[in-house]
Design goal:
Elements (H helix, E strand, L loop, with lengths): L2 H28 L3 H7 L4
Length: 44
């Protein structure tokens, strides 16, 4: 088994997952009313 190919495959999947997760959270954070968000501050 080619280790480099496995690493590339793993990285591409992990990267796609991270990207999807980030976009999902960004989209979820934009959905609620902005008033509540400004009160909370940038707690991540």
């Amino acid at each position: 088994m080619d280790f480099v190919r496995f690493l590339q495959y793993f990285c591409s999947i992990a990267g796609a997952l991270c990207l999807g997760f980030t976009y999902y959270h960004m989209f979820k954070r934009d959905a609620p009313v902005k008033k509540e968000e400004s009160q909370q501050g940038g707690t991540d």
